[in-house]
UniProtKB/TrEMBL annotation:
Pfam families: Rubis-subs-bind (PF09273), SET (PF00856). This is Fructose-bisphosphate aldolase-lysine N-methyltransferase, chloroplastic isoform X1. One of its GO terms (molecular function) is protein-lysine N-methyltransferase activity. Residues 67-280 form the SET domain. It comes from the Eukaryota. It comes from Cucurbita moschata (Winter crookneck squash). Keywords: Methyltransferase, S-adenosyl-L-methionine, Transferase. The keyword Cytoplasm does not apply. The keyword Methyltransferase applies. One of its GO terms (biological process) is methylation. InterPro entries: Rubisco_LSMT_subst-bd (IPR015353), Rubisco_LSMT_subst-bd_sf (IPR036464), SET_dom (IPR001214), SET_dom_sf (IPR046341), SETD3_SETD6_MTase (IPR050600).
């Protein structure tokens, strides 16, 4: 997934819409005064005062006044264990438009004051730019024109994205590729933070007032609540109080002609019902990395497995070279990390008996190459590929024993993975252990959802391979 933002269904793409820059200039002028900077550290205090005196009832009227339009007449804001949510304030029918948020009240990278924007350049991604907008508005405290929105953004201690996990917490998910992806994402954010500091060195008032932890928090706010549009990655106030259901058909849609984002209900809702949309077809690994939560049963789960060559195989190097050369894409880019050509994404195999989708063809082709025992067999595969569509080992090997052996290589590695995952789940410390504070208990549960989902997929692949080897 690209930087953790949600893709929208975009209608009628046009040139990038222009956003009013008046706020940006207003902000710039204010930010650069030293008195402003002196008081910036008290902004959190102001936030707290605001958050205790303002209720969520005032938020939608504020946003409607700001945008000068009706945004929603059927939704209200509620609060629960998973933060804010939107619920039906009256009956909603499938097909109803439940909210419309104009672009002019969305927060996008263009809102950075132009002198800052010009210095940042393209090497700083849009997520980082929107994160910087949030930080600058936070520093303004109650003087920010976005204060009612900014104070409602989740606080660092309310966020559970795996980039915030401690060593011990990350250890729980070491078996999953999410472990590496989390470390990698953290390093990438740190690099972007340093690049921003360097680019803005002529603005010491800004660079000296933000630290990497604040930036990491703002960055995670963006990955967990921004949508991609023609303007880059934008925060869509009010719409971003909608929580996620992987099975929902409702998405946030952009209409560039009307300059707004909207959501259409995919089903009926009774008054009081929690309204959910789908952020994307995201696995638990992606949800944990970018959004800080996991689903107990996620229909979009997948596992990234790295297939090892057989130990002591004298042809191992040649096989890998051949594979890398024959593949159009030898590396996989998943959640901001490059995986080598022997990494494969596996989804749940619904039926072990062959109906529906089985294991990915590319994985089976790789196994056939691994099963070759002589240079001649490898050459034969190359000749067959040259006479066909150019892809290596896509069809079953003529020698059935060899075809079974190829799949048994996979089977033994999958069986080992299943055992390792089972051991990892077993090793998760009990929820009621004395060390389980609320935060740790929550993260442990997320780790459990992740590992059990990935284990389910590995077991389904194992069953499919068992069946294939037995019945071929
Ligand atoms: C776009 S925001 C939704 C509004 C959010 N609840 C809030 O308080 O602002 C996305 C965040 O909501 C939470 N969230 C959304 N859907 C969830 C779900 N199905 N289960 C648990 N948390 C969820 C996660 O913390 C996620 O990062």
């Amino acid at each position: 997934m690209l930087l953790g933002t949600r893709f929208t269904n975009v209608w009628r793409w046009w040139t990038s819409p222009t956003i009013s820059t008046s706020h940006a200039f207003h902000f710039n002028a204010r930010f650069l005064t030293s008195s402003q900077l002196e008081t910036s550290s008290s902004s959190l205090l102001v936030d707290n005062v605001l958050s205790t005196t303002e209720t969520d009832d005032v938020f939608l009227p504020w946003l409607e006044r700001k945008s000068n339009t009706r945004i929603s007449s059927v939704l209200s804001i509620g609060k629960s264990d998973i933060g804010r949510f939107l619920f039906a304030s009256e009956t909603i029918r499938a097909g109803d438009c439940i909210l419309k948020v104009p672009f002019n009240v969305q927060i996008s990278p263009d809102m950075l004051p132009s002198p800052i924007r010009d210095l940042l350049g393209d090497e700083i991604g849009n997520v980082a730019k929107v994160a910087l907008v949030i930080l600058l508005e936070q520093k303004l405290g109650s003087d920010s024109k976005w204060a009612p929105y900014i104070i409602r953004l989740p606080k660092p201690w309310e966020m559970h994205n795996t980039i915030f996990w401690s060593e011990r917490e990350l250890e729980m998910i070491r078996k999953s590729s999410l472990y590496e992806e989390s470390l990698n994402q953290r390093s990438q954010i740190e690099r972007e933070f340093l690049a921003i500091k360097q680019a803005l060195e002529t603005f010491p008032e800004i660079v000296d007032s933000i630290n990497c932890d604040d930036f990491m928090h703002a960055y995670a706010l963006v990955t967990s609540r921004a949508w991609r549009s023609t303007k880059g990655d934008s925060l869509i106030p009010f719409a971003d109080f909608l929580n996620h259901d992987g099975a929902s058909k409702s998405l946030v849609l952009n209409d560039d002609d009307k300059q707004l984002s909207e959501v259409i209900a995919d089903r009926d809702y009774a008054p009081g019902e929690h309204v959910l949309i789908r952020y994307g077809k995201y696995s638990n690994a992606t949800l944990m990395l970018d959004f800080g939560f996991a689903l107990p049963y996620n229909i979009h789960d997948q596992v990234l497995v790295q297939i090892k060559t057989v130990e002591d195989d004298p042809l191992a190097r040649r096989k890998l070279e051949l594979w890398q050369r024959s593949c159009t894409s030898t590396t996989k880019y998943v959640n901001g990390i490059y995986f080598p050509g022997n990494s494969f994404t596996i989804r749940e195999v619904r039926s072990a008996t062959g109906k529906g989708r089985g294991l990915p063809q590319s994985l089976r082709a790789f196994a056939r190459i691994l099963s070759c025992t002589s240079p001649q067999e490898l050459n034969d595969l190359c000749t067959e590929a040259a006479n066909g569509d150019g892809r290596l080992a896509r069809i079953p090997l003529k020698n059935l024993n060899r075809e079974v052996e190829a799949h048994q290589i996979l089977l033994s590695q999958f069986k080992q993975l299943v055992e390792e995952y089972e051991a990892s789940i077993e090793a998760l410390w009990p929820v009621d252990s004395p060390c389980s504070c609320k935060k740790m208990a929550q993260r442990r549960l997320m780790a459990q959802h992740l590992l059990t989902g990935e284990l389910r997929i590995l077991k389904s692949a194992t069953a499919w391979l068992n069946n294939y080897c037995d019945t071929i």
